Amino acid sequence: MELKTKAKNNYLLHSSSEDLYARTEHWKSDVEFYRDESRFLRTLIDKYFIWLIKDGNIVKVQSLSNELTQIIQLKKELYKNITKHLMHLEGLIENPFSQDEQKVKNEHLIIEDEFAEFVKKFKLLKREIFAITEHVIEDEKVRHLLTPL
Length: 149
Fold this sequence. Notes:
Blueprint: H1 2-13, H2 17-54, H3 58-94, H4 101-146
């Protein structure tokens, strides 16, 4: 872990404000993509809710729905922090001799960690939602095939 921190600090030390700005713009774009992904996951849960709870999965589905709500809130906060950080970086680009350079670089490290943690949580939740809906869809297909016309 210490090696990772040193590498990250070294990266920041040698990165220009323009480089950090480009990286932050990429994060912003990724968060916008996750906004669309979270809408899809919410639709998936809502669309299959009746079938999902039919098999006694109500507690799990409610838990996943609550986690998705928390992830969406986390995404909104992250987006707000990234947007504010972009403004700080713009200020550094316009005034490269600003006293705020270290403060903005520290902010960058914090947002980078927040973003990485968000992505990890989002992917795990997405995997869980897909797994439970896939199970329900497969069960419904089997039931449909076994039901006489």
